[in-house]
Design brief:
By secondary structure, the protein is of the alpha+beta class. It is about 30% helix and about 30% strand. It folds into two domains: about 50 residues; about 180 residues, Porin. Helix 1 runs antiparallel to helix 2.
């Protein structure tokens, strides 16, 4: 079966070949050459873009005019599409340490650091930006499914909600529920965001309550950054980057053992 990368490379080859042929076949009509070449290229580029969106889980939907279900964002959203790279640290005493880069300027964006002790009230991951705590994930050790409470700041701030693995779903699904929407126990509020896809292969999407894609996570890209092993997070305009990073890192930890087994298999 063709991988996503091979499919994209084949589509790029088709796009290049078709636009080049269009330019050659119209050379006898110099007055129309540029317009034909341009219109054909634009049309094929739009088709390629649409196919790319389908392969990666859907098109990102602008969220700049949408209010977040937990109030103020944990991180500053942008008015344009944004791409972050999440790298798991090769040397880590906790096994839950990540560095996050902004690929627009290739600079560090935030850090995620885990806890040394996996005890009640101690099993936390903290997210810092420029040395300041912006979010904390507190894993609940007693829960029916993997669950993380998410707080503002360094851990003593407001609880904005929780991320949990859905108990009933056709495929693996994680849900984020906003604290301020009320409910408790089995009477929890509807999910504000859902994360669905291939979590083991780090290829999944995050959707809001309307079903709009607000973020996409993928590891298989046309251009790889060889200097660090990473996966990428694409954010829709207006989406809270820190919430997406928090959810992605929590899910990554839940599949950590499976990731290690896959790496061992690939080395053989």
């Amino acid at each position: 079966m063709l991988s996503h990368r091979k499919i994209v490379v084949l589509l790029l080859g088709l796009l290049f070949h078709t636009t080049t042929v269009a330019g050659w076949t119209s050379s006898s009509r110099l007055g129309k050459r540029r317009s034909l070449h341009s219109s054909t290229g634009t049309r094929l580029y739009n088709i390629f873009s649409d196919i790319g969106d389908v392969l990666s889980g859907g098109k990102l939907v602008d969220q700049t005019a949408v209010s977040l279900p937990y109030g103020e964002p944990l991180g500053k959203p942008q008015d344009a599409r944004r791409t972050l790279a999440i790298q798991e640290r090769a040397i880590s005493f906790t096994g839950e340490d990540f560095d996050v880069f902004d690929l627009e300027d290739n600079r560090p964006y935030c850090r995620v650091r885990g806890a040394m002790l996996h005890l009640p009230g101690k099993d936390k991951m903290r997210i810092t930006c420029d040395g300041q705590g912006c979010a904390t994930l507190d894993r609940k050790l007693v829960a029916l499914t993997p669950t993380y409470d998410i707080y503002r700041g360094g851990g003593s701030g407001e609880k904005i909600g929780w991320l949990e693995k859905a108990k009933i779903a056709l495929t693996d699904t994680f849900e984020f529920h906003a604290e301020q929407e009320g409910g408790f126990g089995p009477f929890k509020p509807p999910a504000a965001f859902k994360l669905e896809g291939d979590f083991l292969d780090r290829r999944f999407v995050m959707k809001n309550a309307k079903g709009e894609v607000v973020a996409k996570v993928t590891k298989d890209q046309i251009i790889e950054f060889d200097r660090f092993n990473h996966y990428q997070v694409q954010l829709a305009p207006g989406m809270d980057p820190i919430l997406v990073v928090a959810c992605a890192c929590a899910i990554d930890e839940e599949f950590d053992e499976e990731h290690k087994k896959r790496k061992e298999t690939e080395k053989r």
